[in-house]
Each structure stands twice: as structure tokens, then as C-alpha cells.
């Protein structure tokens, strides 16, 4: 045996060559064509502990909530089985789910190796104002690390939410509207061959968040929150004291939570370098049954980080039971809004309209203001170049409003602007001011010009929409501008998060490119072809997710067609400055032509610049079981991007056919999972 000590003859030899060894080790990934890349979100702990050191309940009063704790011994099964029930109150069951049915719960996100989708579900019968409805939470067993065997089950009704926990981790949640009937705890019936030690506690048990036993990360670009049915919705961003903040409406069930009334709220991510992201606690958690929130924006006032948002209470209660009629009566009488503390509302009237939350530490730890500023349920609050507070009012109101203080009074200075759109976002860049209006609207004007001079950019075919929904634009610390939004998946509201870097032309036209810091991590690339002429090329991809790159030598009438998998292709008409996604190459409409980049996998973009000189195309294909297909994300000449999701698409092969063009250096690099 050799011991490495200062007296060894080998140690001086190794010491001399250690620097060379480490240099070569660092160089190996580069020599192998491997690029680490990637940016990651450190997720919050999803592990909780319930305090069961109290006596089980004899009787359950629904307003106090309740918790059911049990152990399950699961074995592979066919068909359906009821595990626990309280007649007229709840039912817990195992069943086989249709592997093609992605509606609401998206259970096919967790299939078994043989393709079956067994699920564990718990249905609670609630009584909202219009009558009884079953609220169901569940999980596909294929998502559990070890589906068969013993598991701890916790079902909890908090009065605000109906939740399912497996082995101390939240797997599903829906937000309640209404209450179950009161019941005797002895009414709980269970299948003793599967269920053991079932106990009911009321009031519901306190849950304590535990430190994560292991760190869990998710890719930042194309980020999607935990859960088979959870999605990123409308995004609002800001740069504040060296950090980029992303607030997004978390929505489960594709906008069908809370019995179809929404049930969404702002979750929160942030980063200082775009490589390392942090998932914070929710900025605006739902704490009452009457709460469901709409889009807003973060802003800074008196050096404090704030988030404005709307309360969509009219989705839950008749308009007459919300605070909006009182707010509008005050505006009509006095010409400005009234500040309404929540506690000032009479019984049976629920807060609605514009409110805000304030960060206690400038990073996270948000506290709700519990006041109503205005009847708008999708407010955009910002400060103009003169430091004046402004609001673009949407959904439940309209027009441009100003105030000298955040608490108002807010007065309308223009009833007719913005002229359309919803979830509007305003920003200034290089002497131009822009307003982006939700899914399909965009206007611009020179900064000094009056609002009457705003031009409809969409009508000119010069908009920045590239498949992202409700984009939010922010200038970051180094002067760059970023756009963030979400991509619709399978026609449902919500999807993965996408961040772009924006580019501005002298005439104020805005383009976009992939953000270097957020490119996916890839493994070793392989050269598919050094040159591809009009004979074309076909190749297998050999991986679910990859980055494809190639250089293009332009020509006056050049065109190329890239087919990805079955029934999907991307075309670029270099001469016309136009690109499109389609099924078969037939004409797809741009937004100007009446297309819908935000909600279809087939659309076009126009007026692409930089195609008259050699340029590069980069294409990211990302496939995930949760998405039920693949994202296809394209960057053209470093100046325009376009993205789509195609349900059922698995890109296991591709073919590239140029016409009048020459393709060079066609390379494919697999994405690291």
C-alpha cells in the first residue's frame, strides 16, 4: 500500500503536475463539445409535518375545517376501488384514468411504465350559494417515487382550501367555495385491506414546513411549478435593487380551479444573475374564500417594493355583493376614487377591485394592504417620467388614472386610452414609449408626444408577439430589456415560463432573442452535416429535448422548411422576412392578418430583419410528459423569436429542405434532463 505523505517520492511528482491535471480536467467538456449552460430555480421545501398530538374529533364543524390522517398500503390494481367515505360528505377512491384525457387534472403527466394512469382521488362535497358541487383533488400514482407499498395520506379542509398530501408532501390543492355538511367522525368508513389507522381531527391540524431533505431544482427557462396540474399564468416583472423579480399567477386545472372561478394568486421567483434563481413564498396567498386574484404589476413607491393586483370577486358573488358599486358611486359623485379598508365594508359585501401588497424586506415577505384603491380588477400602476403615479385600468374599469399618493384619490385623465387589450403593461425605451395590451395589442409613440399619437404597432405587422401570453417587459441593471410571459399548453390557460432578451431598432421596432444566461444545459453536440443543399437532409434526433443550430447563406428568393416529427413544420421565407409554424406548410396567419400566436400552434411572424446577410438559426425542442407534447422555440438571426407548444408532438426525427439557400454547420446537442 502506498501512503501519500510529504516523504513520498510520488507526492512531489504529482504536486508538480497537479495544475496541468486540473487544466485538462476543465478543458475536457470543451474538447468533447459539451456545454454545461442552464439556469436553475432552487425550489422551496415541499415537506410538511402535521401536529397529530391532539385528540381526534368526535364531531366535525366545517367552518373550523378538518384533517384526515391515514396510512395506505397500495398494490397494483385494475378497475376502481373506494377506500374511504363519509356519506354525503367525501369519498376517497382509486381508479384507472383515461390516458388520453388531459382535461383539468392532467393526470397523464404521471403514467406508469406500461402507459396506464392509476390515480388516487378525494372528492369533497361543498355547498356554494347555488348548490352542492364535488371538489376533487388527486394525484397520478406514476408521479410517486415508489407508487406501490405503504404511504402516509393526509386530506385537509382548511375552510379555504381542500388539500391532499402524500408522505408529507403536497400533491394537489383546490380553493374552496362553500362548506361541507357537518358530520360525526364515526361516520368515516374505510377499506381495512388498504387503509390503516384513519383518524379525523377538527379543527384542521397545524402544518409546519420542514427544511427540504434534499435540494430540488427546476430549469429556469421553461419553468413550471411542482404538480401535475399546476401552471404559470400571467407574469409581472420588475428589477429592484439588483434583483429581477418574476411574479406569476399560479393556476391549477387550466383556469378551472375554485369551481371554474379562478382560484389563482401570485407566486414569486427572483434572481440576481439569471443563472441562480430562488423560489420564494407566495406574494399574495389566498386566505379567504372570497379571494381570487387577477393580473397586476410590481412597482416601487417610496423606495418600497410593491405588487398591485385586482380582486376578481365578481367571479364568486353577484356584482351587488362586491365593493365595486360603492366605489363607482363615489367616483360618479366626486370624480375620484375612495379608499376602502376591508373592515369598513358592511356584512355581506366583499372586497373587490385594486389592492396591493408590500415587501417587508425588499426581496420577499409580502404583506397585504387590506385596502381597495380603485374598482379596476386588472390594474397597471406605474410612475411616469415626472414621478406621478399612473394607472391603466382594465377589467371592471377602463382609462388612464393618476394620483399624487398611492392611496389616492385616483382621478381619470383619459377615458379612452388604452383603446383595447387587457392586462396592459407600459414601458419606455430609447425615446419611445410602448404599451403592450395582454395577448394581442401593442402601441408606441415618441416619449414627448401626447397619448393621441400612439400608433397601432400590430396593424403595421411590427409587434413583438412571438407566442408568449401577456408579456411583461422590464429594464434590468445592465441596461438590457427583458420580456417574460407564458406559453399556452394544449389550449389551456397557463403553461411554462419563458424569458427573452429584447432588441430595439432606430425606428422603435422591437425584436427578441434567446437570453444567453438562460439557454438550456446541453450535452455533447453532433455534426449532422457541414453543408445542406437543395437535396435536403433527414436525421434521427435520438433524444426528447435538444438544441438544433445551423448557419444560413442567404439568397434573393431563399426558403427553407424544417419538419419536426410527424405533422409539424417550421418554414422561413427569407425573401419575404416571414416565418411560420404549421402542420403541412400551408399559409399560417400573422397577428396582423388575424392569427393568434398566443393560443395556437400554427401562426406566422412578419418583417424579420437581418436575413440579407449570413445568419444563424437556433431551435430548442423541449418535451416533457407534463406538457403532453413538445415546445418548439426558434431564434432567427439573433433578432426574432417564436415559440409554440404542439400537443402529442415527439420529435424523434427531422428533415431540412432548403430552396435557393445553403445550410452550413447543422448541429444537434441533447438537452440535459
Note down, in words, how this protein is organized:
This protein is mostly beta strands and 673 residues long. The two termini are 41 Å apart. 44% of the residues are buried. 5% of the residues lie in helices and 43% in strands. It contains three helices and 50 strands. It is globular. A six-stranded mixed β-sheet has the order 16-1-20-19-18-17, with no helix packed on it.
At a glance:
The chain is mainly beta.
Q: Secondary-structure blueprint of this entry?
A:
Layout: H1 10-31, E1 40-42, E2 48-50, E3 59-60, E4 66-74, E5 81-86, E6 90-97, E7 117-126, E8 133-140, E9 149-157, E10 161-166, E11 169-175, E12 183-184, E13 189-190, E14 195-201, E15 207-209, E16 217-219, E17 230-240, E18 243-252, H2 257-260, E19 265-271, E20 276-279, E21 293-301, E22 304-311, H3 324-334, E23 340-341, E24 353-359, E25 366-368, E26 371-372, E27 380-383, E28 389-392, E29 400-403, E30 411-414, E31 424-429, E32 432-437, E33 441-446, E34 455-456, E35 469-475, E36 481-486, E37 497-504, E38 510-514, E39 526-532, E40 537-540, E41 546-553, E42 559-564, E43 569-573, E44 578-582, E45 604-605, E46 615-624, E47 629-636, E48 640-647, E49 653-659, E50 662-670
Parallel strand pairs: 1-20
Antiparallel strand pairs: 1-16, 2-15, 3-12, 4-9, 4-14, 5-6, 5-13, 6-7, 7-8, 9-10, 10-11, 17-18, 18-19, 19-20, 21-22, 22-24, 23-26, 24-25, 27-28, 28-29, 29-30, 31-32, 32-33, 33-34, 35-36, 36-37, 37-38, 39-50, 40-49, 41-46, 41-50, 42-43, 42-49, 43-44, 44-45, 46-47, 47-48
Amino acid at each position: 500500500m502506498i501512503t501519500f505523505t510529504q516523504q513520498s517520492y510520488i507526492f512531489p511528482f504529482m504536486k508538480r503536475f497537479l495544475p496541468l491535471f486540473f487544466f485538462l480536467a476543465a478543458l475536457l467538456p470543451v474538447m468533447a463539445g459539451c456545454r454545461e449552460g442552464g439556469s436553475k430555480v432552487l425550489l422551496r421545501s415541499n415537506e410538511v409535518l402535521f401536529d397529530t398530538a391532539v385528540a381526534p374529533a368526535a364531531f366535525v364543524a366545517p367552518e373550523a375545517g378538518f384533517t384526515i390522517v391515514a396510512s395506505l398500503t397500495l398494490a397494483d390494481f385494475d378497475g376502481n376501488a373506494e377506500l374511504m367515505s363519509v356519506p354525503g360528505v367525501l369519498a376517497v377512491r382509486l381508479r384507472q384514468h383515461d390516458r388520453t384525457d388531459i382535461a383539468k387534472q392532467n393526470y397523464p403527466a404521471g403514467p406508469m411504465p406500461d402507459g396506464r394512469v392509476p390515480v388516487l382521488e378525494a372528492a369533497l362535497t361543498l355547498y356554494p350559494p347555488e348548490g352542492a358541487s364535488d371538489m376533487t383533488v388527486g394525484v397520478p400514482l406514476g408521479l410517486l417515487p415508489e407508487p406501490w407499498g405503504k404511504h402516509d395520506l393526509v386530506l385537509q379542509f382548511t375552510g379555504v382550501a381542500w388539500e391532499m398530501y402524500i408522505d408529507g408532501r403536497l400533491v394537489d390543492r383546490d380553493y374552496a367555495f362553500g362548506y361541507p355538511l357537518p358530520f360525526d367522525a364515526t361516520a368515516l368508513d374505510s377499506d381495512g385491506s388498504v387503509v390503516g389507522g384513519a383518524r379525523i381531527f377538527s379543527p384542521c391540524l397545524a402544518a409546519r414546513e420542514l427544511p427540504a431533505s434534499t435540494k430540488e431544482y427546476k430549469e429556469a427557462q421553461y419553468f413550471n411549478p411542482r404538480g401535475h396540474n399546476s401552471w404559470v399564468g400571467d407574469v409581472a416583472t420588475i428589477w429592484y435593487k439588483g434583483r429581477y423579480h418574476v411574479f406569476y399567477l399560479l393556476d391549477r386545472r387550466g383556469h378551472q380551479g375554485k369551481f371554474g372561478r379562478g382560484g389563482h394568486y401570485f407566486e414569486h421567483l427572483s434572481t440576481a444573475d439569471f443563472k441562480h434563481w430562488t423560489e420564494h413564498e407566495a406574494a399574495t396567498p389566498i386566505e379567504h374564500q372570497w379571494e381570487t386574484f387577477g393580473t397586476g404589476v410590481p412597482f416601487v413607491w417610496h423606495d418600497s417594493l410593491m405588487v398591485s393586483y385586482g380582486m376578481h370577486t365578481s367571479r364568486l358573488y353577484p356584482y351587488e355583493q362586491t365593493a365595486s358599486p360603492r366605489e363607482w358611486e363615489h367616483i360618479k359623485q366626486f370624480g375620484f376614487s375612495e379608499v376602502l379598508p376591508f373592515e369598513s365594508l358592511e356584512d355581506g359585501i366583499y372586497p373587490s377591485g385594486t389592492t396591493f401588497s408590500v415587501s417587508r424586506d425588499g426581496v420577499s415577505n409580502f404583506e397585504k394592504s387590506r385596502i381597495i384603491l380603485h374598482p379596476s380588477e386588472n390594474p397597471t400602476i406605474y410612475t411616469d417620467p415626472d414621478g406621478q403615479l399612473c394607472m391603466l385600468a382594465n377589467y371592471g374599469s377602463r382609462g388612464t388614472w393618476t394620483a399624487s399618493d398611492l392611496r389616492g384619490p385616483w382621478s381619470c385623465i383619459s377615458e379612452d386610452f388604452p383603446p383595447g387589450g387587457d392586462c396592459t403593461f407600459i414601458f419606455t425605451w430609447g425615446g419611445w414609449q410602448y404599451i403592450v395590451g395582454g395577448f394581442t395589442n401593442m402601441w408606441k409613440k415618441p416619449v414627448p408626444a401626447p397619448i393621441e399619437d400612439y400608433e397601432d404597432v400590430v396593424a403595421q405587422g411590427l409587434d413583438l408577439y412571438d407566442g408568449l401570453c401577456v408579456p411583461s417587459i422590464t429594464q434590468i441593471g445592465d441596461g438590457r430589456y427583458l420580456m417574460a410571459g407564458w406559453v399556452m399548453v394544449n389550449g389551456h390557460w397557463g403553461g411554462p415560463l419563458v424569458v427573452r432578451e429584447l432588441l430595439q431598432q432606430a425606428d422603435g421596432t422591437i425584436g427578441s432573442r434567446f437570453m444567453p444566461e438562460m439557454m438550456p444545459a446541453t450535452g455533447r453536440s453532433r455534426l449532422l452535416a457541414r453543408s445542406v443543399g437543395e437535396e435536403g437532409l433527414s436525421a434521427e434526433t435520438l433524444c426528447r429535448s435538444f438544441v438544433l443550430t445551423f448557419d444560413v447563406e442567404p439568397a434573393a428568393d431563399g426558403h427553407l422548411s424544417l419538419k419536426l416529427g410527424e405533422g409539424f413544420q417550421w418554414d422561413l421565407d427569407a425573401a419575404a422576412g416571414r416565418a411560420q409554424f404549421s402542420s403541412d406548410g400551408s399559409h399560417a396567419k400573422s397577428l396582423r392578418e388575424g392569427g393568434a400566436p398566443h393560443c395556437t400552434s400554427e401562426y406566422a411572424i412578419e418583417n424579420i430583419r437581418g436575413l440579407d446577410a449570413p445568419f444563424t438559426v437556433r431551435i430548442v425542442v423541449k418535451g416533457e410528459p407534463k406538457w403532453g407534447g413538445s415546445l418548439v422555440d426558434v431564434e432567427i438571426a439573433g433578432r426574432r423569436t417564436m415559440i409554440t407548444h404542439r400537443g402529442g408532438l415527439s420529435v424523434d426525427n427531422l428533415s431540412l429542405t432548403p430552396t435557393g439557400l445553403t445550410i452550413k454547420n447543422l448541429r444537434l446537442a441533447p438537452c440535459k434532463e
